[in-house]
Specification:
The protein has 418 residues and is an alpha+beta fold. It is built from 22 helices and 10 strands. It folds into 4 domains: 148 residues, Beta Polymerase, domain 2 (2-Layer Sandwich); 83 residues, cca-adding enzyme, domain 2; 118 residues; 52 residues, no CATH class.
Length: 418
């Protein structure tokens, strides 16, 4: 297996920043190719993200050639052979070909080389082990082309060895299958992930968070989640029960409503029944403050949103805001089970599209005029009035507002005389 297939319809190879970088490192005894995810995505006709480049040139030569071409270079990982070049504000990681000398987790000892086959063989999955030359020739040393055609995600070489090199590859295996695979995950890969499960404890929470959130929004996430739960991997990651039924229902609800897949919303469906679950997940995955608050809000009495009439739903929407209302409602919907009638849930979920909550129209001045003094008392009576305004279904007529203000002030005064 090597060159043969030509990548068509890839103008970024012949012009633009990536083509310029390749031109700098091809010739005078050196070779450069695009490697990894950009090649995979181009072959699948899906948008490419970062363009990573491998070269036979040693790091010092990479820097020398970049300087001679007027390209900014940053030695971001030079001990591992990686130099980042910036062309037209676009970064490119340029890495010298490598081969493993000793493998012990992420701290593997590597040696620079000039062998494209050995470099491909040290990568994680066959679909990521492809490279493409500047002329569009695709080089396949590991069977990646056949696996792309079959929708199959396989480890390169011995799965146990690949996993031992970096236990994050367990999560990456399922994420790659969720994004690019078809049918059930590769059995040999799944079994190796189960055998490597204890190694998950050695990973940093930040790396686990990054991979987990990416996995949850992948197209085939429900299938991957089932395989992970069956293998005991979710329990090891989350430290608690995972709910694959609500997760599948959440994915279906998002799609029914035309919503963009949201990783925190899906994490809530998968792992949150009560707020204590949200707190545990936030710690184990080291979620950001914003993510933690969103997850905690979802888990807070979500069951109270089931079976609401529209006036009650409007009050919830007013209190929670559109995003928190929808997320909590979708969790209630997901946990109601797939057999529930979707029509009422859809009505509640689309309420923000039909109705915008007005602002509370009464002000502090309205209550000062009724004899309420400045200070905590004023805040208290405003809360009483706002509750009454919500119970009256958000009236805006002056007569109704005056009545609410009078009644609230009178109630506060009466209660504080007792």
């Amino acid at each position: 297996m090597s060159g043969g297939r030509v990548l068509r319809d890839a103008p970024w190879l012949s012009s633009g920043p990536a083509a310029r970088v390749l031109e700098v490192f091809n010739g005078s005894g050196e070779e450069a190719r695009v490697v990894g995810g950009a090649v995979r995505n181009a072959l699948l006709n899906i948008p490419i993200g970062d363009v990573d480049i491998a070269t036979t040139a040693l790091p010092d030569e990479v820097i020398r050639r970049a300087r001679a071409a007027g390209i900014k270079s940053v030695p971001t990982g030079i001990e591992h052979g990686t130099v980042t070049l910036v062309v037209d504000s676009q970064p490119f990681e340029v890495t010298t070909l490598r081969e493993d000398v000793e493998t012990f987790g992420r701290k593997a000892k590597v040696a620079f080389g000039r062998d494209w086959v050995r470099d491909a063989q040290r990568r994680d999955f066959t679909i990521n082990g492809l490279s493409v030359s500047a002329d569009g020739t695709v080089h396949d040393h590991v069977g990646g082309l056949d696996d792309i055609a079959a929708g199959r995600v396989r480890f390169i070489g011995d799965p146990d060895q690949r996993i031992a090199e970096d236990y994050l590859r367990i999560l990456r295996f399922f994420r790659m299958h969720a994004a690019f695979g078809a049918g059930e995950p590769d059995r040999d890969g799944v079994l190796a992930c189960i055998r490597g499960r204890p190694g998950l404890a050695s990973l940093s929470a930040e790396r686990v968070r990054m991979e987990t959130l990416k996995l949850l929004v992948a197209e085939g996430a429900p299938t991957a989640i089932i395989a992970m739960e069956d293998g005991g991997l979710l329990l090891a990651l989350f430290g608690g029960v995972a709910y694959r039924g609500p997760f599948k229902a959440m994915v279906a609800a998002e799609r029914m409503l035309g919503l963009k897949a949201d990783p925190i919303r899906r994490l809530g469906a998968l792992g949150v029944a009560v707020t204590e679950d949200a707190k545990r997940l936030a710690i184990r995955l080291r979620l950001t403050n914003g993510e933690t608050k969103a997850l905690d809000s979802m888990g807070h009495r979500w069951w109270r949103l089931a079976g609401m009439d529209e006036p009650t739903a409007r009050r919830r929407l007013y209190r929670l805001g559109e995003v928190r209302y929808r997320d909590r409602l979708l969790l209630a919907w997901a946990r109601a089970g797939g057999d529930s009638d979707p029509a009422p849930w859809r009505e509640l979920a689309t309420l923000p599209e039909r109705w915008s909550a007005p602002k509370f129209p009464l002000k502090a001045a309205d209550f000062k005029a009724r004899g309420i003094a400045e200070g905590p008392a004023l805040g208290h009576v405003l809360t009483i009035a706002e509750d009454a305004w919500l119970a009256a279904d958000f009236p805006l007529e002056q007569s109704a507002l005056a009545a609410i203000a009078d009644q609230s002030a009178a109630r506060f005064t009466r209660d504080h005389r007792l």
